[in-house]
Every structure is written in structure tokens, then in C-alpha cells.
Please model this.
Amino acid sequence: MMLKIIKLARKSPISARIGFVIIVINICAAVFAPVICPFGETEVVGDTWLLASADHLLGTDHLGRDMFTRLIFGARNTIAIAMIITILSFLIGTVTGFFAAIMGGWADLVISRIVDILMAFPTLIFALMVLSVVGTGTLPLIVVIALLDSTRVYRLSRAVAMDIAVMEYVEAARLRGEKLWWLMRDEILPNAMPPLVAEFGLRFCFVFLFIAALSFLGLGIQPPTADWGGMVRENAGAITFGIMTPLYPAAAIALLTIGVNLIVDWFLHIASGLKE
Amino acid sequence: MNMILKMVFKRIALGLLTLLVISVLIFVGVEALPGDLAEAILGQNASPETVAAFRQELKLDLPAHVRYFAWLGGFLTGDLGNSLANGRPIAELIGWRFANSIFLASAAAVVSVPVSVVLGLLAALKRNTLFDKIISMSTLSTISFPEFFVAYILIALFSVKLVLFPSISSLNDHMTFVEKIYTITLPCLTLVLVVAAHMMRQTRAAIINILSSPFIEMARLKGLKQSRIIVLHAFPNALSPVINVIALNLAYLVVGVVIVEVVFVYPGLGQLLVDSVAKRDIPVVQASGLIFAATYIGVNILADVLSIISNPRLRNPR
Model:
């Protein structure tokens, strides 16, 4: 397995390698944030909107906090929450998707119609409405986005599992008297992995951009927690004075998304077996 | 023809049904609120009189299904109730803002649709050339950018450095059409960039899909001219997927305006929705949410209907 991965990585195109480097840098920043950062996450260190200098690599923000420090801590908070949401949404989506595909009949019909309705509604608007009712906060944010996003995972995993569920070996396992959970975990899941992995990357990007958008609207991760979308919002006023501060966190969001997209593109390219 | 009509009607009926279910969802969402809505919004320290007044204002003392039908009926007749925040009729708040949002979205659509369909088509025809690679790289980066990043780059460039366009797009009734267009240049450009990237990629994929299908290969093997293959064989079949791509992106545009409106302080429905969510002005949130949903579903129905009509296989059944 390990050898296979190394072999694949050797043949990877330059774009995928760039993507890999971007992701590794981001993960390092997220994990080692307290070690790298010269200041505390919410520590006020100087005047507002200082320009970049040796002390403050990226200047300071609207309250005089070190922008570089906030950016690194922002990586930690934003990526961690996006990751939790994506994993949660995959847990919900694949379990219900596989379940629907194996059971068929009424169970499939009911779940699929519910998902159809949720998907007919623009995600951002839905999230805004739910947040207006339950109020803003990290927990509602995680639950709401995970639930909304799991509808897309459901669609894919159901479609993939449908093809697998009719295979002879699944039939054999059924006749052997295996339980539902075994069918999902040991028969369907291993064979559904490649498309699900690629989808995981895409969903992560989507969730990540989505949290950024909500935070930017002031309805996502709440201050004083450093978070890239929120940092853009807080510093947005600076741009009209020609100070580029809000562009740094926005660029960080874009960079990480590009990185993940590059890897996913390469992965899809391999998995599709190539049309061109 | 009869079959097509039937499919079209079926699609429209399904769309209306979805909308109805969503209106129930929007309504029930508020019911499902943990605890009492009045207390949740007014806070635990609110006096009993305020809570009672609030409950009466929202008609919380009536049973749920009665309120739902009253709400829906009001919606259809244009009476949306009053805002909690300032007590003004919601219809008055929403009407002109919705018109502004539609104005912005359609301006973006008018620019982005032709540009991206043509560029996507060219990229598909000149597959794997330098031109294609540039298109594919730049669209991949653009779809990775959050809308507000694109917006702030444009502001930094065009309104701070070059001082060409305003960074705040406030409209008023005294403006002429040209002045309005000038004011919304930057938000419109932001939407165009974001939507066009998606549209180009999808158009390219749809066209490549058609070009690699057996009947095109057959036409090639018969020795037909390239131009004839494209115009007579590929185009009629590509029409349906391309229309679908366009409509999907228009639906996206309807929602995409929310963030762009906030960046440029544009007086649209999205801005109102975001403000109301922050203020927890739930009647306004419900009303504007339902309008967004209706527009979104409407565009999706239109997409499906157009693609049913433009599909040659459905139009000429065997």
C-alpha cells in the first residue's frame, strides 16, 4: 500500500506537487501555531493597521493585533472546523447513502425525496435561515453545514453503492446471512473508496469556502477567535485607504482551496482512467 | 410533441410541490426553535408584558397550521406582515431591494453567458492546446477564490489604485440607467468572474462529452467536413447540456449576489437577509428566504423545461 502511494507520487504532475506543498504548509501552520507565532492569538501589540515591518511581518489588524499571528491561528481554527464538518457530513452521507442503496424500496424512496427537497434549496440561504433561528455559534455552525452538505455525499454514495450492491459478492454475503452493517463496511465501502476520496477533497473545499463566506457575513465563527473569513470582514475597511490587510486572509483561503483542488484534479484524472 | 408537453407539465408541477414543501420547512423551522421564540429573541429578562405583546405580534397564540395558511395566503396576496425590528411592512422593505438584486444578477448574466459559452466552446475545440491550458488553469484558480476575495482585489485595483469605479454601490431613483450601470460595475464584474469560471469549465466538459460520442466519430469516419460536423451534428446535441449549464449558473447567481451585495453595500435583498439574520428579525428572514428559494427553483424549472425542449432525442421520438 505504502509502496504503491510512493510510486504514484513519483509519477505525479507538477500541479499536484504544488498542491501537496500548499497543503503541507497549511497543516504545519495549523498544528504548530503556538510555536511559530511571536504573539498571542488575541494579544494587542501595537497601533491599528500598522504596515508590514520586521516586528510584524504582515502588519497589524483593526484592533492592533499581529496579523501574521492571527493568520496562523486562523489556519488552525478554520481548517480544523472545516475538517470536522466534512468528516461529519461524510459519516452521515455515506451511512444513509449505503443504507438506501442496500435496502432499496421505501427506505430509499423516503430518504431520497427528503434529500431532493433539501438540495432544491440554495445552501447559503438555508444555512442563513437556520442560523437566524438557532443563533450563531460554532456548534450550530458545525451541525447545520454538516447536515446540509451530507445531502451531496448521500447522492454520490448512494449512486456508487447502487452499482456495487448488485454484484455477486454482495449477494453472496447477503445469502451468508451477513448483517446490514457488515454489508456497508466490508462489502460496499472498500469498493466505493476512490470516488468518495475525490469527493472528500471537493466537499472539503466547498465547506471551507462556505464557512469563510458565513464568517465573512459575520454569522460563522465568532470573534475574537481568529478565522480567515472573519478577518477579511473585520479589516475590510482598510482597503479603501489602500491598505492590503484584508487581502492576506482572503488569499490564504484561496491558496488552500487551490491546493486541494489541484490534488483532487490529479486524483480524478487517475481514477477516471482517462478519456483524453 | 404531446410527450414533451406532458414532461414539461410534470416538471413544473414537481417544482411547485417542492416550493410548497420548502415553505412548510421554512415555517416549521421557527416552530422547532428550542424553547419559546418570544423568550429566545427578547431574552430571559424580558417582562411578561413584552413577551405577551410579542407573541400577539407574531400571532403565536393561534395554532400552527392556522398561522401557516395565514402566512402563505398573505404571501400570495403580497401581505408579508411586519418587520420585528422596525415594525414596517415587509413588502415595503423587500420590493425595491428585490428589484435591485435582480438588476445586478441580470447585468452579470448578460455579460457572463455569451463570454463563457464562447470561451468554453473554444477550449473544447482546441483541447490540450496552450489556449485550453490557460483557460483551464485560470478557471480552476477563480473557482477556488471566495467571492469576497475577487471583490476586494477588484476594489483595490479599480477603485483605490486607478480610481475608476466606486467601491460602494448605492443606487437611488434619480440615477439614469447609464449611471446605475456605472455604479454597479465592480459588483457585476465580481459576479461575472466567479460565475463565468464555473460556466466555462462546465461548457467545456459538456462539449468534450459530445465530441467523444460515437455518432460524432461516425460522422468523422464518413469523411464529413469539420465545420459540417460541428454545426449539424454536434451543435443540436450540445444545446441541451449547455442550456442546462447556463441555467444552473444563473440559479447560482441568484444566491451569489448575497455576498457581493454585502461587500459593496449594495441595497439588495441579500443584504437585507444578512442584516435580518444578525438582528434575528425572523419574519423578514422567512419572507426573503422564501423569495430566494422561489427564484432559485423557478430558474431550475426553466432550465429543465428548456433542456427537455431542446433535446433532439425527446423532440423526435422514435
Chain B touches chain A through 54 residues (CB under 8 Å).
